[in-house]
Every structure is written in C-alpha cells, then in structure tokens.
C-alpha cells in the first residue's frame, strides 16, 4: 500500500513574494531551489496571477499598492545584486569568508 504524502500549504503572501521574485528576472530553477518548491509550482503561481487583474496583488489603494509592489521588486533586485557582489568578492580574493574578524 502506498503511504499518503502530506501536501504543504503556502500562504498567499509567500506565493505573491515568490512571483515578485520571478518578475525580477531570477531564473525559475534557482528560485525554486532557494524556496524549496518545485518549478511547476512556481509556474502555476505565476499563471494564477495573470488570470485576473486583481489576482495576488498587494492590498490597498492603487498608488500605495503600486508603490509596495515596486519596493518589493526593488528589494528583491538589490538582494540578488548584493549576493552576486558577495560571491564576486570571494572569487576575486577581496574578502575571505573563512577569516576571523579582527
């Protein structure tokens, strides 16, 4: 007999943030790995936001909601750039991740 698999439930906020990260241009496979979800699930969440104009949007007045979305997008982009710069610093030898702070 096959054991039943428990399905994880994700909040609407988590799904919305994942879709926002996708919109920053981050590769789906990379994002799926970071969030510990399947690529199929990310594509499904993305499609769900495209169905209606009011799907998984920031709640509030239009200008505030638009500002919030823009800030989330910018925050995700800056985090990604920061990660890239950290990796580059390690590769170029300007920062040793294993050295102790003095």
Describe this structure in words.
This protein is mostly helical. It has one domain (12-92). Helices cover 63% and strands 0% of the residues. The protein is built from 4 helices and no strands. The protein has helices at residues 12-23, 28-35, 39-51, 62-92. α1 packs across α3, α1 (12-23) packs across α4 (62-92) and α2 (28-35) packs across α3 (39-51). The longest helix has 31 residues, at 62-92. It is flat and about 45 Å long. The N and C termini lie far apart (59 Å). The model is unreliable at 51-56 (pLDDT under 50).
In a few lines, what is going on in this structure?
With 102 residues, the protein is mostly helical.
Essential attributes:
102 residues; 0% strand; mainly alpha; flat
CA(first)-CA(last) distance: 59 Å
The number of distinct structural domains comes to 1
- Helical content band: 55-70%
Low-confidence stretches: 51-56
> Helical element count?
4
Largest sheet entry: none
